[in-house]
Structures are given as C-alpha cells and as structure tokens.
Specification:
Elements lengths: L3 E13 L2 E8 L14 E5 L29 E10 L4 E7 L5 H8 L5 E5 L16 E7 L3 H9 L6 E8 L13 E8 L10 H6 L11 E8 H14 L7 E7 L20
Parallel strand pairs: 7-8, 7-10, 8-9, 10-11
Antiparallel strand pairs: 1-2, 1-6, 2-5, 3-4, 3-6, 4-5
Protein name: FAD-binding FR-type domain-containing protein
Pfam families: FAD_binding_9, SIP
InterPro entries: FAD-bd_FR_type, FNR_nucleotide-bd, Riboflavin_synthase-like_b-brl, SIP_FAD-bd, SIP_fam, SIP_rossman_dom
Length: about 270
Amino acid sequence: MSFCEPARVVTVTSLTPHMRRISIEAEGDWHWPTGGQGDERIDIAFPKPGETEADYDYFNNPDYGKADLGTEPPWRHYTVRKVHDGGRRLDIDFVVHPGGIAADWALRAEPGHLLGVFWSDSSRSHYQAPAGPRWQLLVADATGLPGLGRIVEELREGDVAQAIIEVETEEDRQEFVTRGDVTYTWLVGSGLGKAPSALFEAVERVEFPESESADVYAWVACESATSRRIRKHLREVRGIARDKHNVVGYWREGADGHVSGMNSEEVTVGA
C-alpha cells in the first residue's frame, strides 16, 4: 500500500451555487476505511493549475520529508462526505470560491481527472459524540457544512440536535435525511470572509436543555477566530466539559495559503 494512492473523478455535481460534490473512485486495489463518521478527514493531492492529474508519486518517494525533492505538489484537508462500495468510491463536497488551488480545480473538475489520496487504515474525526441519549449543538459555516451534513444523516433515532449553519445565499441551504430530531437555524449572507460572522451571536441565543450537562454535546466547525469565541462561551458560560465538545477552526480569515482545517482554503477577505 502506498502513502498516496490514485483516485479518479467519476461524477461532478453542483449541489448549490457554492458547493460541488465530486465523487472519486480508487484506482488499483486500495480502498478507504469504512468505519468513519461525522467530519472524517481526508487529505487530497490536486493537479497543478492547468493540469488534470495530480503528481501523487511525489509523496511516495522514499525520500519524501527527508530530502529536497523540488516544489511539493498542492494538497489540502477535506471531509469524506460519504463512503460507497466498501470504500472504493467517495463523495467529497467542495466549497467553491475565486482563488485557491483546490477551489479552482473543483470549478474545472471533470470525470477522468486524477487525484492523490493520502491513504489511512483508520478514520480520523473530530466529531466524537458520547453514546447514549444526547442533545447536540451542531454549528458550521460553509466549510463545515459537509461534516455537519454527514453528522445529521448519521444521527440515531432519539437523538435531538440544534443545527446552526452560515451560508452565503438562500440557494446554498441544503436538506438532509435523518432519523434524528433536528432543528435548523440558517444564517444567510454573514461571515465567509465577506462580512462579520453571526455564528457566535446565534450560539449565545440557543436554549440548552435543562437536563444535566453530561447529556449535551457540541460540535463546531468554522473560521478560526469565531470558533475560539464559541469554544470559550461553551466552556465558561455554558459550563460544558472539555470532553463534551469539539470546536475546530477550519480556516483563518485574512490569511493566504494552506488551510488548517478542511473543505476550503484560507482566503483574504474580499477575495
């Protein structure tokens, strides 16, 4: 098994004006692990601008990370939206916006394009809801929406969740099929590098259940500064224990370069 395995694009679907779902299929005999959940992470190597095939062999060089092999091909963190065919096919949802290696590629992606997938024999997820009856607070901007969508779709019967989601336009709302009881709050036109985020204020207004805090779990995925404000609120105001919430900064406003989280790239405000 190689460190970086090839995967070919099989379908490209525009879900909303700013989200594209790209399905990829494993080339060769490898497959993705099937035990993942929620915001399961996947690292992807992309074609260079103007090209259609990623240089995945670069990462399989025995000297990778030890010697100067020239300019490293572009790669980014993303979320596995759904796993099909025993791990042979994966859905990846991309936030599309002007600028950024991955976003530019997603806008021009076609069936037949070749990516590199950094293979792992086990899944990696921030989302770690406790077993048993639970009430969940799920918070995301567009970059966290793929993870939130999978979390909602995988809820069990009896799970109750409050989802707060920040998107650019009304048309960027999505619908999810779930066994859980989910209430949605959609924030339209705020945040996402174009205006101040309204996620923190929305979290402040949430009415948490009156049951013991052990029954509460919170998952947050959004811009880094906003995520820090929400984390502090959950801990210091709501009194939620550290092992009852996972708060992740998926990107950093005002910065260019590699994203620290998933599903988008760091972009300068107004880009």
